[in-house]
Amino acid sequence: MASQLRLRFALALVTGAGSGIGRAVGVRLAAEGATVAACDLDGAAARETVRLLGGPGSDEGAPRGAHAAFQADVSEAGAVRRLLDQVQACFSRPPSVVVSCAGITRDEFLLHMSEDDWDKVIAVNLKGIFLVTQAAAQALVSSGCPGSIINISSIVGKVGNVGQTNYAASKAGVVGLTQTAARELGRHGIRCNSVLPGFIKTPMTQKVPQKVLDKVTGMIPMGHMGDPEDVADVVAFLASEDSGYITGASVEVTGGLFM
Predict the structure, then answer these.
(1) Which of 153, 157, 245, 248 has its CA 20 to 30 A from that of 118?
(2) Sign of the C-alpha dihedral computed for residues 157, 160, 163 and 165 taken in this order
(3) How much is the CA Rg of the chain, to the nearest whole Å?
(4) More confident residue, 216 or 135
(5) Cα separation, 18 vs 163, whole angstroms
(6) Residue 167 annotated in active site
């Protein structure tokens, strides 16, 4: 962890902050000095994250200067607009760091996948990131503030994975979306990058059968699955001015898997 508070003036909005990578990101950004607006579909989980950060929080928002918890469904445009309005009302400024971690899986083989399972995954994992990126960018441009937008993709979006046509498509889309946003928003001082985790120890991977995890672990050059904190380390770097000339990048955090 960095020895200095690289984000001591930042307001960071983290979606999917109630567990896994999102929670680890919130903890790390707060440790770097950022004020964190933790958002999750599960409002109670978001509030628990805020408690872990050491801020007083509240059921919806928090006093200025404290970390805050918010509840929102990122797949709904109205909910995302309200979220950004609530964050700005709470802190009197737009978030200068935005990390989209919200994501779901609905795994099934291509031959049997339902349209509903396809639509749900695309709605959260891809449309949700579009909505959050757009709303955050609009707020930053309107205020004339620079910012760093970091979208969590997946190595599966690059190489595919059996039983995850919907998830792989959504995560591949995140990379293309982020690269295009980087081209459009650079002139406004807004950097956009994506992070591609490999197999990380999260509630999502806990659903994977152990024999599959054992097989995958055997393919990882570093010999073990990653921790959420491994991803949070990279997010903190991309959020800070230490990466001030990096935009449109896709950073893999995989232990060497599929390199």
Answers:
(1) 248
(2) positive
(3) 17
(4) 135
(5) 26
(6) yes
- Length of the chain in terms of residues written: 259
Residue 120, H or E segment: helix 115-122
pLDDT of res. 213? 85
- Average per-residue pLDDT in the chain? 94
Asked whether 127 and 177 are in contact (CB, 8 A), the reply is no
The CATH number of 11-253 is: 3.40.50.720
- In degrees and rounded to multiples of 5, residue 250 shows phi and psi of -125, 110
178: its two tokens: 């982020």
- Residue 55: the pLDDT is 52
Return the closest-CA partner of residue 167 out of 103, 219, 216, 75.
Answer: 103
Tell me the residue type at 84: L
**Segment (H or E) for 117:** helix 115-122
Q: Is the pTM of this model over 0.85?
A: yes
Average pLDDT of span 129-133: 98
Q: Of 199, 84, 193, nearest to 147 (Cα)?
A: 193
Per annotation, catalytic residue among 70, 91, 118, 167: 167
Say if CB 128 and CB 15 are below 8 A apart.
yes
- Which residues are CB-contacts of 247 (< 8 A; sequence separation ≥ 6)? 182, 186, 191, 192, 193
Please tell me the predicted confidence (pLDDT) of residue 207: 78
Distance CA 201, CA 172 (A): 21
Q: Would you place residue 211 in the very low, low, confident or very high pLDDT band (cuts 50, 70, 90)?
A: confident
The Cα 245–Cα 226 span in angstroms is 27
